[in-house]
Amino acid sequence: MARYPGATWRGPVPNYTPGGMRGVLGLVLHIQEGSEAGTDAWFHNPASQVSAHFGNPKTGKLDQWVDTADRAWAEVAGNPWWISVENEGHSGDSLTPSQLENVAELLAWLHTMYNVPLRISDTPLSGTPGLTGHGLGGDSWGGHLDCPGTPILAQRQAIITRVVQIAGVPTPGVTMGTIPATIGQKWPEIAAEFPANAPFDTDGAAIWADGGARAAAFYAKQARDAVNALAAKVGQPPVVDVKALAVALAPLLATGATADQIATAVVDHLGAKLVTP
Fold this sequence. Notes:
Layout: E1 7-9, E2 16-17, E3 26-31, H1 36-43, E4 54-56, E5 62-64, E6 71-72, E7 82-87, H2 97-114, E8 130-133, H3 150-154, H4 156-167, E9 175-178, H5 182-186, E10 199-201, H6 202-235, H7 242-254, H8 259-275
Helix pairs in contact: 2-4, 7-8
């Protein structure tokens, strides 16, 4: 169960699929073509056969009708993968300052809860995650091509910029630096993925970090295998050649070596047997 703490719970509604989400690719912006009160009444009507996860009035906090673990009936084929928010107003309207803030805070929460990327998605049918609009899903999402309308789609970058301020995360797509040549030198098995002096941005930084983690894991595995191989040899010690050991100790015995010196010579002799392939 996941209910957004910044919303007023208005559920349950009759039109939804319990536990129907297969994943969360992002947030879909809708327009109500009416009022928040009218949309709330319509979603509670079983005959409507529609719902959304959230409602965003012109002023005031969000409403929530469907838990984000459940599937709202908002964009047909997109329902199993997308969280939906209905904005009060009509196609052609822009989001009010309150509405923009509400959407930004919701997207920040989805970014934390479901790792929704802070990016604009113009091709949701291709599975591009991020912040999209209902009409961008075309016929398979119900054919509502004017939903939420051009002005609201144009506000998506402003929403993401505000999320960055709220969540304190790096601005997506901003160049952070270049990949040092030492990466490929130290970890040749990932050199092709991280070419020397190639620029990387805040999106690529996560990939770079992942590559470094994989390189560290690779060498940790090598170390583990080496330790296991040595342990196997210790577990199956070689047969001691008494004559060879006697030959090794003879010079020490002839010179009156101490017990410690003799013990050290024995360890050295047997140790050579353990480390020899």
